[in-house]
Amino acid sequence: MKDWSPESITAQALGWIDETTRAITPPIHVSSTYLRDADNQYRTGRVYARDQNPAFDQAEAVINALEGGHQTLLFASGMAAATAVFQALAPGDHVLAPKVMYWSLRNWLLTFAVPWGLDVELIDMTSPAAVQAALRPGKTKLVWVETPANPLWTVPDLAATARLAHDAGALLAVDSTVPTPVLTQPLALGADIVMHAATKYLNGHSDLIAGVLSTRADNEHWQRVRKVRAQIGGTLGSFEAWLLLRGMRTLHLRVRAACASAQRFAEHFDGHALVAGVLYPGLPQCHGHEIAKRQMQGGFGGMLSIRVKANAQGGEAAAIAVAASTKLWKRATSLGGTESLIEHRASVEGAGTPAPPDLLRLSLGIEHVDDLIADMEQALAAAHA
Ligand SMILES: *Cc1c(COP(=O)(O)O)cnc(C)c1O
To answer: What's the number of domains the chain is made of?
Structure first.
């Protein structure tokens, strides 16, 4: 099993079969509780399904294999997974997080984590010098990084950040939702924890909400993360765990298709008369391209943003008009599904967003890229008519 390539691991979900029925796909376990042995023991190790649901086992094992982790835990959402990492810290702990990051998590940090006593500092995570300057040895317990970072797709250097964090006695956690384990393995680059919104590429079909954490090693912090899941109970439903496993069987095909389309789309609109800029780590002039070449294997991901040239009403109005004029692109938040999504990000994020008002965030799906390009061409023309 260890020798299988990642493609084979995901295609066969590690090759497990249901031993009772010889079924190739697993049953959906729905029981909330498990029978105690007559002598008062629980020999299966399963007591109650909040934390010990067999429905989690196979999906966790597949992700753990792809990430090269020591252990992997499913959560009810990406946010449940991400916040568990912070909730496992103690009041007074100093934490570094990026200024440019997934908006809801940034919001939660400022709305809940700070009042609960975490000392959260938002910095420019793409600058190792800024990371170095902000680290307080002994006091900083966690560095949180997102790569490439929403919605500007800047790329922090994971290996360099891991070294700096470890030198200061801090853990490094990486939101790796966008590259997925197909393109980047943060644990191998020195990260301690990798997090995914499994809602996105891992499941890939826009039909469930799920999150996941994998750890490189067992340690005191991870034991507390486990307790956060078990005791606060942000765990996934059985049906969602089953669907996630099904979705992951095509992970490599979907991610490679999205990467190829995003690269072509980015190159097509780079320098376009109605586009002020394309933000995509696959373009040589974009921030982090050199780091991304080292850190991402086989593509630069399926996410990019375009900045729309102003029309008579301005850049923001032009961007919103482009989104309003697309037919194939679907106007919706989220990412990583089979269908391509378009979103005026500043409208979603509100005050304090790093997203410029003329920016549209695009998630490339698996439609034919020529259709996606043609639809964007007509929408750009319509918005500037
Ligand atoms: C969607 C997303 C999350 C949050 O995941 P949910 O499943 O929506 O809770 C976190 N980080 C990134 C990069 C995301 O895209």
So the answer is: 2
